[in-house]
Fold each of these.
Amino acid sequence: KGALNMDIALAPGERVDTLPGCGLRIVQREDGFCYGTDAVLLAAFARAWKGERVLDLGTGTGVLPLLLSARTQACFTGIELDPVMASLAGRSVALNALEGRITVCVGDYTQPDAFLPNSFHVVVCNPPYQAVGEGPQSRADDVRDARHESSATMEQWIAAAHRALHVNGRLYAVHRADRMGELIGKLHGMGFAIKRVVLVCPLPNRAPNRVLVACAKGGASGTRTEIFTLYQAVGCYTPAAQAIYKGGML
């Protein structure tokens, strides 16, 4: 980890926050989309090894490459449709002096020419969870695109991951638990083998509201299923969740 570059310029309405468990810094907008628990869990769930190439589909502010860069010596590419969000991500990379390991590019990952096919070992994705028109609609474009499938449907981001990965390459994703059947069906339909599923419960004895899925492109079948509980009481993380926020793995 390099020294912080304190010369990064901030625009009005932007702030610098410290990422949990690693001490890296991230530039975010006060009135825009900011990372949340799902990104922290996904970064703790994903695995990447030294020398591997990792693609983050819809990187947003770049939180996943930043968090993962603190755990592994892999190299990261974040692709983002919104140039404003990509600028935030790029300046966060520069702020942490990680330009040699993280590249941020503006592009539409649903398009065939967005990246070189079969060129990544790992894909991570924290995709939009809600169908267009479902749930409350934010006035902020970046928040709306992050939450709703206006920029990429489930089929499109899964197809992009499949196109990006080597044979036996790994995909790690987080989604809504109530769409798990649809998600797993589409992953199987596009040639992914589901290797690990973690159902995330907000509280003990509460139904899961998130699912983390690890799969392999063209891999053998065989799935391990687990339960992870985030809070032991309202506002109080479980010991396992506390460990993740201190930099632990899931």
Amino acid sequence: MVGLPRFQRSGARGQGRTATILLLGFMLVLLPFSFQIGTGVFSDAWAVFGLVLLCGTGSLFRLAANPRVAVPDYFLAAFILYGITHIFLHPGASPNQYGLWEWGAALLLYVFLRRLTGTEKFQVLVFLVLSGSIQSLIALRQWFGWFGSNHAYFEITGSFGNPGQLGGYLAVCVVVCGGLFVQVKGSLKFRFTVLTAAVLIGLALLLFGSRAGWMAAAAGMGMVCG
């Protein structure tokens, strides 16, 4: 069971950690809107360099953290090894410099999140639920014809470039809702809020018919709620 998020911390170091979590949370909310500018995972420079700066600065406040090695760490190491091997096996293919920054930002974000405490991870997940709820509201407004989509052939995309990206993102967010609902036992108001967000996100998933999103959400919910 996890307690509700609390942002009050004493001391300059604790205040720095709190500010970093807040900044990271707001960046998670704003990040999907970068797809309106381009098509990549981090399609605008502010997202890439913002993550590098934020996570690099935040790591200064997490020097004492010593997380244990988990199963996802091995998968990440295997993926990095695959990427390095691919570069050496194809020496003629010059790697995209901006793409290296993108993957570096994603890797640094992963390392930073692994160094957070349980309560701080909880706070980041709350921001992710907020982000998913915002994207679901945008999708619903597109479904009713109140907002235009970002794709010529699909009516519902959220702020992303196509519905596939939206479906994957909402699948992650609805799974996070399920995990928070299961973990938090002491606050009925919070559980009701998370349940409402899960229904909203689930409704958006159903409306635009992303079968991959449905499968991902079902598999994730089975893991966290089973």
Amino acid sequence: MEIRFNDELQRALAKSPEQALRHNVSVIRPEHLFLTLISDPEGTAFKLIERAAQGSSAYRLSEQLDEYIYNTAIDEAPSGDADAQPRDKVIIDDLTNRLIKLSVLEAKMVRSDVVGPEHFVLALFHNSETRRLDCLKPFEAAGVTYATLHAIVAGAESPAMARMRRQMMICLISHVRIRLIPSGGKRASPRETLRCLTNSATT
């Protein structure tokens, strides 16, 4: 299967040096590419994070990431004149390069022959090194995990959404007072009704 990077991811890769330079560093790290991807409200990565986050938003999380990168750049900046730093050459670090390669594997895992921003995000949250990064802690606190992201990308229902949907169905069944009469002759509870409906739908 031939693999190619889609235009959206290629544009983000091209813009990531600007993100690094904006934070006064000449090395593109995973957080720079990630911030580039989720800074576009119309982008795939932004919408993916928005769907996965609970109790927060993709916009708020991108702001926190931007602030983290800015503060880290200040802490790591060498003493002396900042203008003396070489700004005409921006390189990509080894970890970011490996994540881009891992995004190809993530695409293959969901049977896609096109690598997009969502696959890079999956690689970012799947990799053991990047999962330890402090910049991803706000995302983890908001429920943005590899399992949740993978469920969305793969088209499956996340556990949290499954529980929410089940509770909504139970409330709906209770509200309209649906009663199924099981073989024992007793009235079914909402949960029993839901189980009967689910079983009927799958047979």
Amino acid sequence: MQSIIRHNHSEMNEFSGLLRIIIYSALDCMPSLGMLTINALAAADSVLIPLQAQFLSLKGLEQLIATIMRIKKRINPALDFEGILLTMVDARTNYAKDIMELVHENYGQIIPVFENYIPLSVRVAEASAEGKSIFVHDPKGKATEAYGILTGRCLRMAGNKRSASNIKMLDVNELLGLGQDSGEQAEKVMEVAIGKLYPFNAHPFKVLDDEKMQETVESIREHGV
């Protein structure tokens, strides 16, 4: 862990420079404390912790929070906790209710715990297996509604932070380097509804673990894309 943290200072500077031109960016990390997760935490403004309503997940939360605090101290002082989001909650059981209560009691005073949670739903697993968004796979489901509420809350929180920091955000034309004199090229910029975006299942970029990702990074550095 120590060597990983030291290695990330230069990478954090490169990634942070890129993020300055992005309005919102969500870095989805696998449930491990490898290189990718450390890099994401080094570059992030805040971290949202999804927590499965299970006892073992609750035990692992302590280690994760300790790691986040080390990264905040040594690499990214601006890193903050967005909150803890309980997921895969079967609210019909006393077990899940007990876990939720434990999270609020033990962490609610230091880290925000979202009142809304993601309910247990087989539809979410189906959407993941089929490579589809839950909003496309089950647009009227309870889990979909919960994710919609979460998205709205995160956008409001990010908007409040952006307003407080008084940062001037670039519009689409500025981001793409298209000025008023760009002529016909500017007309190619268009907005596409998210519902019209579908996964490209034949895409060759399918990396499932940190080691394979690092191999991909090194290959790109040496040979290009």
